[in-house]
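I have a small job for you when you get a moment. Can you supply me with one protein entry, sequence and fold together? It will help me judge whether the discrete encoding reads sensibly. Write everything out right here, beneath this request:
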Amino acid sequence: MSWDNVSDIKNIKIWTDYSDSTQGHLFVNDNHQLKVNVGISFSLKSGTTEGPTEDEVNSALSLIDNQDSGPLKYLTLSTEGKYTQVYDPNHVQSTPSQDSNSPEDGIYDFNFTYWLYSPTNINAECHSESVALRLAYNINNSDGTTTAIVKETSIRGNYYTKTYVSVLCYPAKPYGMENENRTSLMTVKTLVSNATYYNAHYDNSGDTSYSVAISIDDAYFKIFYLDGAKEPDTLSTLKPLYISFYSDSPMWDHVNNAFFPNIQCGEKNYTVTAAVRSNLSYDSYYQLFDVDIPINQKENQIIFTAVHTDVKRTGYNQACNHYQYLMAYDQFGNSMYIVIAFSNNDSYIKSVS
């Protein structure tokens, strides 16, 4: 058996992708994950060339509590998920964990990656924990018996090389409205000057289109994922979720529409095609015109669109305001429940929790 040829561990280390690789920072929100790297090499007995396989080493390694060498108390192993950004409490570093370009690459015979998270049901008080390594395997003796070999890099462990990472845990970040003593969301309404208007059914003028972006009002945290959102290639013609109007002469109505493309977060360029209406009746008589609105979506944005037009009296207008209820997440998996109530001013946000 290949373990029989091992005389000792040559070198062993555990580290993170954080700028101080002996530390990791983790939100306790059931989403955020910390990537932990492990490297190990072995010295073989004289005259032997075959050591353990990668699978054998992987099976022999485990993560343990650095203080008492027992199982991890507040951290749980998982597979790689969506929210793996490196969190920096100083708000400098925020990059995806990478499987390559580590400064430790090439030093070890074997490299392994572990993903840790801290479930709220076992760490409601956000305790931190240090993580060390255990290597456990069996060797065969000449008399036919086996000997269990266990080497631990924890403070109380029996191996002389002490290597561990300290994982600092933080409560889930809360989001809210302005003046709620939480990081707030903001709305930015931008004129879209290159929209295309066509299929008009009425005399109208003053057609104006806008991009309305919801984002986190913070340079470090970003809206990263929107539940139920789609990619731009799934878009079809949108009907308004909001219609308002007012009249200031016997002939003219001033009509405002708002639309929600429901496009997934991230930098994207796409075109929203919308049917501008004064009434949600399926009778095309109330469709004022169609418009193509080019959108340049940035990271940290949820996009809505809005259209204003001045139209000769249609004879039948009906206002509507269909609230939108959004569940979004920042790059670390902290959630925000956003209620959108459309209006003609610069803010669509009714509440955030």
Notes: The two ends are 58 Å apart (CA to CA). The longest helix spans residues 54-60.
